[in-house]
Amino acid sequence: MRILISGGGTGGHIYPALAVAHTLRDRYGAELMFLGDENGLERDIVPREGIRFVGITAGKLRRYLSPQTFTDLARVPVGMSQAYEKVREFQPHATFTSGGYVSVPAGIASWRIGAPLVMHQQDVSPNLANRILKSFATRISVSFPQSLRYFPRRKTALAGNPVREDILRVAGAPSEPFKASFDLDPAQPVLLVTGGSQGARHINQVVAQSLSRLLPRCQVLHISGERTYEETRQLAEPLFRERPELRGRYVLRAYLSTRMAEALASSDVLLCRSGAATLAELAILGRPSILVPLPPGFSGSPQATNAAMFRQAGAAEVIADKELTPDSLLDMLVPLLENGPRRTLMANAARTLAQPDAAYALADTVAELAQKRMEKLAARAQRQMTPSR
For residues 137 and 145, what is the distance between their CA atoms, to the nearest angstrom? Predict the structure, then answer.
């Protein structure tokens, strides 16, 4: 059974795809190929997971104007051609895509050779890539019930968003050992700050400017993203020269590829973006959060819709990116830190949104379609071998 996996650009697309890939390999012995952007994060992450990676020149489908908009558009036909060649060579029995611009050429190439496509929608509202791909998909899966209305009912099902196995392993574990593993005091609350795999400059700046008021109230584990690590460090450093006693309450890391589950498990509250993969992990772990959705582009902000859904469920507070300041952050965070029962209610609300079996459900769907494709190809080959009378 040969399965093509595609999704990339951010960890939010890559890690759910990898969760499904590992399940397909472990449960069905599938031969896997991950088709991604040759310059994307997946180029480094996927091979570390022991999965064959093939890169193409993918043009990003942007929600906003930037100097790269037109050069990326020019890459789209190149990526389409490359994807078709790679897919035709691999001849997958089925394909799974988890979103991101690279999934479009992968999905269309699979459709062209007749392989069934399972397209997964992570955010509540469809992204541009999945709006393009939905016509080519054999089955569509969604992470949240609110997404069902965007797709044809006959081929769409609620599966939840798959999370990494290491997230499932730490779910329900006490936070104290994980705090200690980052040299933090196990008895003190921890605020985990993360902008996702790419980081978030504005969140980093506001947190660094707030440390003098934050650190007396909580410890901060801050994952800045590699591109803004040095900038964030320089913003934070003057405080520790003035108040060296606070240094031990702040841990700054550029990126935690293999220890992200531990970081999440160490936290009492999160300040983060509201990508679907992040929210799926918060739900599994049962963590209250303050969500700062990615600012909207031309087509709106899928993250804002995600965040509103979590807030409505009672699992999170939400601050718009443009309204995030040191004062607004402290006004929202301090009452949460001081109210343990409220954090417990938010944690329980988050858990009601969890779908821990999502990877298994999606892998089963992909394998079912692949098996039918294999049987169809075998029957065709048999007919061709049988002499006509």
Answer: 19
